[in-house]
Design goal:
Blueprint lengths: L1 H33 L2 H10 E6 L6 E2 L5 E13 L10 H8 L3 H12 L13 E7 L1 H10 L6 E11 L5 H4 L2 E3 L2 H6 L8 E3 L2 H5 L1 H4 L4 E7 L5 E4 L15 E3 L3 H10 L5 E7 L4 E8 L12 H10 L8 H4 L9 H11 L13 E4 L2 E4 L9 H7 L2 H12 L8 H14 L21 H7 L23 H12 L3 E3 L4 E4 L11 E3 L4 H17 L13 E7 L6 E8 L6 E7 L9 H18 L19
Parallel strand pairs: 2-10
Antiparallel strand pairs: 1-8, 2-3, 3-4, 3-5, 6-7, 8-9, 10-16, 11-12, 11-20, 13-14, 15-17, 18-19, 19-20
Helix pairs in contact: 10-20, 13-15, 13-19, 14-19
Length: 613
């Protein structure tokens, strides 16, 4: 009996030993064969991989004029494992023209895993970026004194013109979040932070190369590994062709000097953005200098907010430029037809409610209402729509239908332009008013939205897109900045048509009204002989001076350009925005028709850091 128990115990002990051996073998197989961690560690000790950074793709305008290109610069690199602890640090600091304190602080930052999660003492790290050619030459003469330190050539962005800062965007040094999100980046490298540089980072950045060097047991470099057999050359990024017209962009920026606001122009048939201006602006070129930190602080502290792209981030009351969208909804719903007339006794009057208007003939029909920008007409139209119980079962139902029309026209949500930071604006619905007024509201409560006031807000891009939609008689293509990518197609969403809920025939009626506004109404300042311009002004009420707004397109048939201009505190639409629109129409249409600019317009670029107001 005792022998049997001993035999059983032997089997148990043997089984446990076998299990332990299997576990050890499995673990060793996992570590040495399946897991790359130890292989990477061994390689990092025996091999030194020097990254060869690619040149970013260049950026051109629609006529292939250069906007952004590259120039060489030099970064001081270090491999901590190769640094001589007895090195003369002060001599290195004098060579580079930096203080010993700054040098020590930078070394500590490199070793800080919270700031540099990709740190390894066996791989190259950036100490100081963008050395001057003079600093580079001095260092090269003395580099034998500083083992572990070397210079890496890379490229920095340069700008052909001081323009389109909000569109082009900026390339900046990666932070810890960037490194954690994408292992492509290492500390000290750069990526697109805003604008096109950010949106198309994957295409612009290219593919890194690598030079593999062999080290001995003491970590000293002994030459190329396998004679450079496994080295990989960097592949440059893809070039971008923007839809911007450089000459139009420069003119638009010159027109906005001294103002705050935005100009956006779109080619209706393609959705390509021809110009996009946000004022005040800033100079991208200074961001590539040693003044960068001081300049950025100045921009961030500027109360005029020059870093904000007002074209896509500014949400404003659209004022009377919103009236064509109201006319389209009323026509489609049968609330009005072209013969419907409404009174305007210096505005809309109903019981104790009054919405003022300037003096003009009364009553009037749709075409004249658009031409003269009659507030009374559109207030009556919205009132009759929201109060109509033959068409709609309730006020909520009518309000929801109204909002559906506005959303179909591109309001209330982001359009999807290929720039980061686009805002959606505001198109209120019934639920919004239920909450705001505790369910006690009626058509008179919201009557101001019919004339682009009240709770309604649009971005300048949305207003320009509305002009393009009317020019196309009922559809738009999502506005976009990039026209072409070398070796790659642009996103298909920038080729698709988005149709509104309104029939083409009703758009023709609104076009007639906008043409009448140019011939004899509020937009006569945009009347250009030989060109059928269609337009609509807006004067958006504000706590201070009113905002000046214009929306329009030209020519009437086969339109080539649609424009929105928004000048903060610019007064009446006809006073500030309309003269700007005339110059832009003249400039662009002459270029299109004759191939050269026949209008002699002196274009002045702002030389200051931000546009002065």
């Amino acid at each position: 009996m005792t022998e049997q128990r001993l035999s059983q115990r032997c089997f148990v002990i043997a089984g446990i030993a076998v299990v332990i051996v299997i576990i050890f073998i499995s673990r060793l197989f996992t570590l040495q064969i399946l897991s790359p961690d130890y292989k990477k560690s061994a390689e990092s000790i025996a091999l030194l991989k020097k990254t060869a950074l690619p040149a970013r793709g260049v950026i051109k305008d629609r006529h292939k004029k250069l906007l952004v290109y590259n120039s060489k610069t030099y970064d001081l690199m270090v491999v901590m494992n190769e640094v001589n602890p007895n090195m003369d640090t002060l001599d290195l600091c004098r060579t580079l023209g930096v203080s010993k304190e700054d040098f020590i602080q930078r070394i500590e930052e490199i070793k800080d895993y919270s700031k540099n999660p990709a740190y390894s003492r066996y791989t190259q790290q950036v100490v100081f970026p963008q050395l001057t050619a003079e600093d580079f030459n001095i260092f090269e003469e003395k580099k034998f004194r500083f083992p572990g330190f070397s210079v890496q050539r890379r490229y920095v962005r340069q700008y052909a013109k001081n323009c389109a800062a909000h569109v082009l965007g900026e390339v900046g040094e990666v932070n810890s979040d960037d490194i954690l999100e994408d292992d492509y980046y290492q500390s000290g490298e750069y990526k697109g932070k805003i604008g096109i540089e950010c949106s198309y980072e994957q295409q612009l950045r290219g593919k890194k190369g690598v030079n593999i060097l062999l080290r001995d047991s003491h970590g000293r470099v002994r030459g190329q590994y396998e004679g450079g057999r496994y080295d990989v050359a960097p592949h440059p990024g893809k070039d971008l062709t923007l839809s911007l017209d450089l000459d139009l962009q420069l003119l638009a920026e010159s027109l906005m000097v001294g103002h705050r606001g935005s100009i956006v122009a779109i080619e209706p048939s393609t959705g390509e953005v021809l110009c996009m201006v946000s004022a005040p602006s800033y100079d991208l070129r200074i961001l590539n200098t040693k003044q960068r930190a001081k300049y950025v602080r100045q921009l961030q502290n500027d109360e005029r907010k020059p870093l904000v792209n007002r074209a896509i981030m500014g949400t404003y009351p659209p004022g009377s430029t919103f009236k064509p969208s109201q006319a389209l909804a009323f026509l489609q719903e049968g609330i009005i037809d072209t013969l419907t007339s409404y009174p305007c006794h210096h505005g809309f009057r109903y019981k104790r409610m009054k919405v003022g208007c300037h003096g003009h003939a009364s009553p009037l029909r749709l075409r004249q209402a658009i031409s003269t920008s009659c507030n009374g007409y559109f207030c009556w139209g919205l009132y009759n729509m929201l109060n109509n119980r033959h068409h709609y079962s309730s006020l909520h139902s009518a309000m929801s239908k109204w909002r559906d029309y506005m959303v179909s026209m591109g309001f209330g949500y982001t359009l999807g332009i290929d720039l980061p930071g686009e805002k959606r604006g505001m198109i209120p619905n019934a639920e919004f008013y239920d909450k705001a007024y505790n369910e006690h509201w009626n058509p008179l409560t919201v009557i101001s939205i019919s004339i682009g006031q009240g709770e309604v807000t649009n971005t300048p891009l949305q207003i320009a897109n509305q002009a393009a939609t009317i020019a196309n008689r009922g559809y738009y293509i999502v506005p976009h900045m990039v026209k072409g990518i070398s070796g790659e197609e642009i996103d298909k969403k920038y080729k698709e048509r988005h149709y509104t809920m309104v029939d083409r025939r009703n758009y023709e009626h609104v076009v007639q009204g906008m043409r009448s506004a140019v011939l004899r109404g509020t937009c006569v300042g945009t009347n250009i002989p030989g060109v059928e311009v269609c337009g609509k002004t807006g004067t958006a009420q504000n706590r201070g001076s009113d905002h000046s707004v214009f929306m329009g397109f030209a020519p009437r048939q086969n339109p080539r350009i649609a424009i929105a201009i928004y000048v903060e505190n610019g007064g009446f639409g006809a006073r500030t925005a309309v003269p700007m629109a005339r110059q832009l129409f003249t400039k662009y249409l002459n270029v299109q028709k004759h191939g050269t600019n026949r209008v002699r317009q002196k274009i002045k670029q702002p030389d200051s850091l931000t546009v002065k107001v």
